[in-house]
Amino acid sequence: MTGIATPSEVAEKIADLRARLRATRWPSYDAGDDRSLGASSDDVRRLVQYWANEFDFAAWRQRIDALPHEFLTIDDVSVHLVHVRSPHPQAVPVIITHGWPSTFLEIVPLIERLTQPERFGGRAEDACHLVIPSLPGFGFSSPPSALGGYTGAAIADLWARVMTWLGYERFFASGGDIGARVTSWLGVRHAQRVLAIHVSSNALRVALPGEAAATPDEQAYLDARNQWAAMEGGYMHVQQTKPLSLAYGLSDSPAGLIAWLGEKWSSWSDKLNLASPEVMDVILGHATLYWITNTIATSFLPYFVYDWPPGARVEGPQVKVPVGFYLSAAEIGGIPPESFARRQFEISRWSVLPRGGHFMATEEPELLADDLLAFVRAFR
Fold this sequence. Notes:
alpha/beta; Rossmann fold; 16 helices; about 15% strand
């Protein structure tokens, strides 16, 4: 399977996974369908039952094996990426970075829409070559040897070297969540090569110099973000402060793993239905990748080094390339006031998408692909 494990090794891991799922020891408190305490008991029992008995592991493997994978060894990291070249000679390269708690699989629904847009009502002349790397320590990418390799700036430097190795001297970059921060650092540290960046609201700082002068709309947005952090940000505090203590449990218990991941997919998306087999297939596809590669612990480490130098997020004036934002009401924090963003970045495109949440590439691939193509078109 993509050169990481033999079929027999994967089969052995899947058999062990199913056995663990069927032997799940459930918490002594059953919350039913109440999600106010975290992942609801009903949701997790449904996911565990489906994962153990109905999830099609063979189809999951076939979908992954059908993708064009590459592995590049750069210093101490083996970087995994899916690299899809468009058949159109005028195509331009775009590197798209995923976030947490997803994997490179989140970006896969964009592939054909970006590499062959004419098949979806678009224009062949807008086509892109697509590079979808796995973040270090996620899925098939190895972890860096030092914790500093997990910072957004360090990953941006790594991606620049990936694009050099692939033969792309100039390129576009896009990403959400962690990927938005990595993409922003590409726009600062490699501005001579990056043609433009396309990011979610995660690229924005949540506090500004002179915050007291914020408009009422901006202050309301900051208050909402602070309220969200107080009510929903426990995961981040744990992953920033004591990530390994949590990782022991999630690396040993697939039920614990899917409870931790599934709750985020439920609460951060635009009303994804966790009772739907199609949605469960998506979430469990990511969970299976984390489990097979045993990378949930290293996926926490970008949070542990979140504010290590040179910082989690760039200062907008440092970015000297065109910036496009894509936003939605269901994304964490909702839609920031445009004035708030423009006080941080010189913005070339501001797109409010009508649907979709934190996992936009999977939730609404048509909307995101169309917006990215329109943004790139202006700077090709």
